[in-house]
Amino acid sequence: MQGFSVKATGSITNTPETGSIMQAAEDVTVVRGILGRRTRVQAGGDLRAQFTQEARVEAGGDFTAGNHVYRALLHAAGKVLVLKGGGSRGRGILGGEVWGQEGVEVYQLGSPNGVAGAVVAGLEPWQAKQLDRLKTSAGTCEEHIQIELRRFNLTRIDLGQIRNIVAAATGPHRTVLIHQTHQLGQLVQLYKKLQGEQQTLEGRIRTTVKGV
What we know:
Layout: E1 5-8, E2 12-14, E3 21-24, E4 28-30, E5 33-35, E6 40-43, E7 47-53, E8 56-59, E9 63-70, E10 73-76, E11 80-82, E12 92-94, E13 96-100, E14 104-105, E15 108-109, E16 117-121, H1 125-151, H2 159-168, H3 171-211
Parallel strand pairs: 1-3, 2-4, 3-6, 4-7, 5-7, 6-8, 7-9, 8-10, 9-11, 9-12, 10-13, 11-14, 12-15, 13-16
């Protein structure tokens, strides 16, 4: 019922009322639908429901909707399947955020009303966030590298030219250039590290997608 929380070490077959929480270590079968922003349903295995609206849903296996998914936050470690259902929302994913690590099968995405949403297949939410973080950090690092290069009147890294510029400088200016060279070196090392992490993560994602 509303406001109640149910946890099971096995499977659950029931319909949660709006605002309730339902967690099962194995499968969850929702007789009708999952409805409400404060409603939470989590299954360690597969999860089936007639529909999901504005709820938070997580499945350790596949998630199957008999009709539609509407403005829900849905994550499945397996596939997200939206079957043929009746009504204007039947067979559709409209709005919200839907993640299917092993794929998403749906007839209709979005709506003529322009309900904003995101559908992602092939990677976990944390992987998407980490990729965004790495790309943003690498972009910022690249901008700082260009700033340091402009101090040497260069547009690209040329170690020979940088050494010659530092060697030709004298007094305090030489000290400043040596410091800037050290900063540039640190930025280049950081940029290579970020690129390496990004390539490693993208490689893992590609391996996961190929295995599906």
